[in-house]
Design a protein that fits this description.
single chain, alpha+beta, nine-stranded mixed beta sheet, about 25% strand
């Protein structure tokens, strides 16, 4: 489980559904490795995404609070993917047919990773969904949010743009 530390990373508070706040990690905190398979059966790991900003979202098809986040996350994936954003959506304990049907219904094109036994969620200490983690280009855990967030809001985009403007990992010598 990732250790929590530091003040909240946030924009000025806005009441209601447009509110956006994240909890920041201590500098140099490293997230647990993710090893899984997408609904298409492709292997995926966090290590292979070095140099990219990763939005790691834990969700389920039955989660009512997850549903409104998904279209906003899809837009971020399409708009910021070319700049270096990768979305990994970790599904909580559901099967491929349910995940595929949900993705088709909402037009989701980002990587949907199956976590049938909850192993990835357990490594991240996820106790409720949606839960989202942001990982910097250098592989550090930057911040997390438990509960829904307005991922399409200007504050969310500003945080992601700031992460995308950071340099990637330094080459090994």
């Amino acid at each position: 489980m990732l250790a929590l530390a530091g003040p909240a990373l946030s924009a000025p508070p806005t009441p209601g559904p447009g509110a956006f706040e994240l909890t920041r990690y201590a500098p140099d905190t490293r997230p647990p490795e993710v090893h899984g398979r997408t609904v298409e059966g492709h292997p995926i790991s966090l290590a292979e995404l070095s140099g990219r900003v990763v939005l790691l979202n834990f969700w389920a098809t039955w989660c009512l609070e997850c549903r409104p986040e998904m279209p906003a996350i899809e837009r971020l994936h399409r708009e910021l993917g070319p700049q270096g954003l990768t979305v990994l959506a970790i599904n909580a304990r559901e099967g491929t047919p349910a995940v595929r049907a949900y993705a088709r219904e909402l037009g989701l094109t980002f990587a949907l990773v199956l976590d049938p036994k909850g192993d990835i969620g357990r490594k991240y200490g996820v106790i409720g969904i949606p839960t989202t983690f942001l990982i910097g280009r250098d592989g550090r855990a930057v911040a997390f949010a438990v509960g829904p967030r307005a991922w399409g809001s200007p504050p969310a985009r500003a945080i992601l743009q700031a992460l995308l403007s950071e340099p990637g990992p330094r080459p090994a010598r």
